[in-house]
Amino acid sequence: MIYVTVGTQLPFARLIKAVNDIAAEKGLDVFAQVGPDKSHYHAIKTADFVGPEDANRLIHEADLVIAHAGMGTIISASQLGKPLIIMPRQFHYGEHRNDHQLATANRFRDFPNITVVEDKRSLSEAMDSRLEQADGPPLGVVPEYAPDSFIAELKKLLV
């Protein structure tokens, strides 16, 4: 199962339409949290809102997570070692107030569990690649808290 999330504040039709088209073409099982998007998507299951507990469960159960460049999803997928494809919202498409999601995506571009895409073609290619790797070794899990040794070194600096 593929879990897609775009957050709850704004719709992200460019991403959801692309996922819907790809799912229809490839017969993929997709559940998408679409925010305040009133469009109809025929090839995927959708919900406007998914609560935190259900979102964590869906990320845990997913073979692949696809999202806007929101920190909550980046952190959650990384903590569970899930492959994540992010497509940042872009200001010039009217998808957000500025391009902070491009900056976020660029910051995480080199993380082993994260693939950054810009358009439907690169999304489709990334989905193929990540789904082929689903049966491979698990990705590294990012711990929720910094290691004790790191905290000890920080304390030395602050004393």
TrEMBL record:
Would the keyword Transport turn up in this protein's UniProt record?
no
Q: Which residues form the Glycosyl transferase family 28 C-terminal domain?
A: 1-107
Glycosyltransferase: present as a keyword of the record? yes
Q: What domain of life does the native source organism fall in?
A: Bacteria
Cell compartments where the protein resides: Endoplasmic reticulum
Q: Which UniProt keywords apply?
A: Endoplasmic reticulum, Glycosyltransferase, Transferase
User: Which InterPro entries does the record cross-reference, listed alphabetically?
Assistant: Alg13-like, Glyco_trans_28_C
**What family name appears in the similarity comment?**
Belongs to the glycosyltransferase 28 family.
Q: What is this protein called?
A: Glycosyl transferase family 28 C-terminal domain-containing protein
